[in-house]
């Protein structure tokens, strides 16, 4: 629910060779010099918290605290006092004053996970904090100055929530200074084998077991699965194979049935047709390059003319 560590504790690295991961690395590098708020969008388990920690780690705030709060996991009635803190006696049961997560992140970074789940009244209060750089604890009257960087994360389309009127537009603009999108794993299958290799080593270390490998047949299944739970699901599958399997090589039968079972028929479907993948890849390159074609062509390793021809072919 809540995670607080200093930057030094988190030694995680961002694994992957897809354009999405490479562009994230590039953005991390660029972001390191700027103390701006960041909005992270991506499905559950795609690595939003990992990226948030990296944004913190490369920033000038790296020696300050990193506090992660999952807004969807805390009941609405509690979230306000958890975030803003409260004075002693502010409400029944509030014997002692608390500082709250926002002040706990003073001098550092706060990750507000599932920010789209915040009630309208909390959205307004958060907006005031960002505008005034001060927090008023529940039951208090005096604003307490704070210096925080906010990284907001969401697994839904926040822009749509704004259009639908469930998320405040002004708060959206405050949070969305830089937006980073993390693609679902099924749209960057080229990351799967690297992640498998990385997770095999990580899980072995965590369970104090010798490192295992994955047979080509099992790898083909892992590559073809749709991974609705993204990298987290992949990590769980590897962990399960270590715990339940005995052999040094992980085989298809060591994989859970929802991954292995449907693989024979689903394998073909799970792969996007090459033309679709190609179009997606070109779109992403253009997005990362802010529409600058020469830059997109360079990223894709082709010349501008070829890019232009493909854009025409795909009606981009
Ligand atoms: N590119 C990556 N390289 C290495 N590890 C990754 C990568 N992406 C995700 N992970 C790992 O996968 C797990 C899930 O990632 P994380 O908790 O950051 O996802 P999330 O997007 O915050 O999920 P949720 O929406 O459910 O909160 C973590 O253990 C994280 O370290
Ligand atoms: Mg998360």
From TrEMBL:
<keyword id="KW-0804">Transcription</keyword>
<dbReference type="InterPro" id="IPR002197">
    <property type="entry name" value="HTH_Fis"/>
</dbReference>
<dbReference type="InterPro" id="IPR058031">
    <property type="entry name" value="AAA_lid_NorR"/>
</dbReference>
<keyword id="KW-0067">ATP-binding</keyword>
<keyword id="KW-0547">Nucleotide-binding</keyword>
<dbReference type="Pfam" id="PF02954">
    <property type="entry name" value="HTH_8"/>
</dbReference>
<dbReference type="InterPro" id="IPR025662">
    <property type="entry name" value="Sigma_54_int_dom_ATP-bd_1"/>
</dbReference>
<dbReference type="InterPro" id="IPR003593">
    <property type="entry name" value="AAA+_ATPase"/>
</dbReference>
<dbReference type="GO" id="GO:0005524">
    <property type="term" value="F:ATP binding"/>
</dbReference>
<dbReference type="GO" id="GO:0006355">
    <property type="term" value="P:regulation of DNA-templated transcription"/>
</dbReference>
<dbReference type="Pfam" id="PF25601">
    <property type="entry name" value="AAA_lid_14"/>
</dbReference>
<protein>
    <recommendedName>
        <fullName>Sigma-54 factor interaction domain-containing protein</fullName>
    </recommendedName>
</protein>
<dbReference type="InterPro" id="IPR009057">
    <property type="entry name" value="Homeodomain-like_sf"/>
</dbReference>
<keyword id="KW-0238">DNA-binding</keyword>
<dbReference type="Pfam" id="PF00158">
    <property type="entry name" value="Sigma54_activat"/>
</dbReference>
<dbReference type="InterPro" id="IPR025944">
    <property type="entry name" value="Sigma_54_int_dom_CS"/>
</dbReference>
<dbReference type="InterPro" id="IPR025943">
    <property type="entry name" value="Sigma_54_int_dom_ATP-bd_2"/>
</dbReference>
<dbReference type="GO" id="GO:0043565">
    <property type="term" value="F:sequence-specific DNA binding"/>
</dbReference>
<dbReference type="InterPro" id="IPR027417">
    <property type="entry name" value="P-loop_NTPase"/>
</dbReference>
<keyword id="KW-0805">Transcription regulation</keyword>
<feature type="domain" description="Sigma-54 factor interaction">
    <location>
        <begin position="14"/>
        <end position="243"/>
    </location>
</feature>
<dbReference type="InterPro" id="IPR002078">
    <property type="entry name" value="Sigma_54_int"/>
</dbReference>
């Amino acid at each position: 629910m809540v995670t607080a560590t200093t930057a030094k504790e988190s030694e995680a690295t961002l694994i992957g060779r897809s354009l999405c991961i490479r562009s994230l690395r590039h953005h991390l590098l660029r972001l390191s010099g700027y103390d701006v708020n960041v909005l992270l969008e991506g499905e559950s388990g795609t690595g939003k918290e990992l990226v948030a920690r990296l944004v913190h780690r490369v920033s000038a705030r790296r020696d300050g605290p990193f506090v992660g709060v999952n807004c969807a996991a805390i009941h609405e009635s509690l979230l306000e006092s958890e975030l803003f803190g409260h004075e002693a006696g502010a409400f029944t049961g509030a014997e002692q004053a608390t500082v709250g997560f926002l002040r706990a992140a003073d001098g550092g970074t706060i990750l507000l996970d599932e920010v789209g789940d915040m009630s309208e009244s909390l959205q307004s209060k958060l907006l005031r904090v960002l505008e005034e750089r001060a927090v008023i604890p529940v039951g208090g009257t005096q604003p307490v100055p704070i210096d925080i960087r906010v990284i907001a994360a969401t697994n839904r389309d926040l822009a749509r929530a704004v259009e639908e009127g469930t998320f405040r537009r002004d708060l959206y603009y405050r949070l969305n200074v830089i937006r980073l999108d993390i693609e679902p794993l099924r749209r960057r299958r080229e990351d799967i084998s690297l992640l498998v290799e990385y997770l095999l080593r990580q899980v072995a270390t965590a369970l104090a077991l010798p490192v295992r490998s994955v047979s080509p047949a099992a790898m083909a299944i892992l590559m073809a699965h749709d991974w609705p739970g993204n990298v987290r699901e992949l990590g769980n599958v590897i962990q399960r194979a270590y715990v339940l399997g005995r052999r040094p090589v992980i085989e298809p039968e060591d994989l859970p049935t929802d991954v292995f079972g449907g693989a024979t028929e689903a394998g073909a479907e799970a792969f996007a047709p090459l033309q679709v993948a190609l179009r997606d890849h070109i779109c992403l390159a253009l997005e990362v390059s802010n529409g600058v074609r020469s830059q997109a062509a360079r990223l894709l390793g082709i010349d501008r003319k070829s890019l232009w021809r493909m854009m025409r072919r795909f009606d981009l």
